[in-house]
Write a structure and sequence with these properties.
19% of the residues lie in helices and 38% in strands. It is built from six helices and 24 strands. The strands form four sheets. Strands 1, 10, 11, 12, 13, 14, 15 and 16 form an eight-stranded mixed sheet that branches. Strands 2, 3, 4, 5, 6, 7, 8 and 9 form an eight-stranded antiparallel sheet that branches. Strands 18, 19, 20, 21, 22 and 23 form a six-stranded antiparallel sheet that branches. The chain is globular and about 60 Å long.
Amino acid sequence: MLQVFQKLARTKRASQKSITVPAQSAAMGLVLVLLASVSAGYFGAWVENRRAQDFGIPGNTRVNQQVVLNESQLINQVAKSVSPSVVSVDVTSESAAGNGFFGFSQPAQQQSAGTGVIISSTGIVITNRHVMPKDTTAVSVTLSDGTKLDNVEVIGRTNDNDSLDVAFLRIKDTKGKKLQAATLGDSSKVQVGDKVVAIGNALGEFQNTVTSGIISGFGRNIRASDRSGGASEALQNLLQTDAAINEGNSGGPLVNINGEVIAINTAVAGGQAQNVGFAIPINDVQGLIKGILQQGKLLRPYLGVRYVAVDESFASQNSLSVKQGAYVAAGGSQPSIVSGSPAEKAGLKDKDIITKVDNTDIDATHSLTTIIGTKSVGDRVTLTIVREGKTITVPVTLEAVPSQ
């Protein structure tokens, strides 16, 4: 059964007031010191527990209180260190609405809001594609100290049918403000149960909203649409979290306890679901980030195959000889190999199983999408493929995704 999830950009009326984001900067070293403090805290809690037992006081209660206090302090410091790199994004776009004279549609302005992450002190910001409609006419960002910057341009956004829902902005005039770039982590090291913190412009009005939770799963594939019920988008290889995220959080960071951005928040389950959110692993966009920072434009490397992630269950059901990899298969009416793509030029075929890209195995934490996402346009990679029971290697040169 197809389940539709809700994207997190927030549409609002132009008359709504934008609230600035209060925050303080903190050195990453402080987070590291805090981690040491947490360890010391556990030892102190043990001593306090023994002391409490000597006086007949239930020690477990004191230990639990100390653990909660230490965790709260950790989240507080992580939020303080990352918040200066988080911006609120306000977008003005046009859409045909209403009938004017002689029945012609008249353009109407629409205000929407999301979140972004500063990835370079030169003013480069990453956010979600659906925060930046094609008909965007103006963009502004609000820094954590409340400074509003209006001279912002859209560098580029992925195609609407791309499974990677990202866009990049450039702040052209910082008004003398020094921008703090976020520290990017390694999403391949994420484990289910890891503690995470989400920061974003909740509901498009409550900037710098901080929530915490854990990683609930990874490798999730969903279809997402906005509240209006418009066309849905297929999103792949997402991290799942129970950290509360809401409309307006689109493009905001999901960070680990080291204050590193490991994902970009993008969708939340609607209906009766409780705290089921999804985020794009940061490794999936590393290739794009590299291209943006080095060449100043969005160059999306692609292979050009549609595939199903292989696990033990899928392998058993389809009598496959391998239990992990990317099984090349058609998606509905869409062919398994994109016409004119690098995959077609390299001779890939339907039902090929790609098991490795260069020296990296494709598995639960390293999907084909993720691995290709770390590459750049023009990179030459070697695919290890199982075809009709035989293992072969195929060289492929990655190209830029064709424009729409």
